[in-house]
Amino acid sequence: MLQRPSATAPGGIVIADIAVAALAAVSLLAGAVVIGQARASLDVFLYISELGALGMPTASQFQVGFVLVVAGILLVAVVVRDVRTRLPLLRGVAPAAALVAAAALFLVAAAVPCSSGCPSLLTDAAQWRDWVHIVAAVLAFVAGCLAMLQFATARDRWLARLSTAGGITVGVVAATGGIISLARGNTDIGSTLEYVAAAIGIVWMLAMLIVHALPAPGSQRPSALDVSLTSTSVPNGR
Fold first, then answer.
1. Tell me, what's the pLDDT at 225?
2. Which of 18, 28, 49, 122 is the most buried (most CB within 10 A)?
3. Which residue has the higher pLDDT, 37 or 221?
4. At residue 225, what are phi and psi to the nearest 5 degrees?
5. Average pLDDT, the chain
6. What secondary structure does DSSP assign to 107-171, as a single string?
7. Where is average pLDDT lowest: 4-18, 51-65, 75-89, 115-129?
């Protein structure tokens, strides 16, 4: 059963979760603003990766923004650390673990920027760093989608619907933008789709922070939170 922390839970736990959630929200929003400003400073449509490409004037700003987003994702993982899903295909990995994996992969993508112009991997111009950067970024999006879909069975209907819609949308939008990029198609459309996918992911994480950090009056915080397949209470296994 997925629910908010209880108002009757130990005060230290609730306060700590609220503090971590606040830091996560600030970090995510700050990172988004920094990357958004880098994008707005240019007169052309570019993919997010291209903002940090070697030789780009926005490279340092891109890395700062990306690191802030990575820090925010890690803090979200701390807040949802007790969440488990009973969805058969996904219960082997905790949502927090999927978020940590996404953060680690995004950090690799930030640390290894693509070469000048971010050439398509389907061309001879692609270097080893382009492969590392793109593969890490793609796997990070996959890990993020996995975490979102793990919340698709939440008892809170709005949360389940948001997670389902978000996970599917991010997957489809990011994949479409990636295909356009590989094919060197319309950069205006492809890059816009990538920014949309990233924005949806950030909005979803902010929603998770609100649900898990704010106490629900009159409820009892369980020792482990379950994302249940049914609307009936399921023992948490502890």
1. 42
2. 28
3. 37
4. -95, 135
5. 77
6. HHHHHSPPPTT---TTSTT--HHHHHHHHHHHHHHHHHHHHHHHTTT-SSHHHHHHHHHHHHHHH
7. 4-18
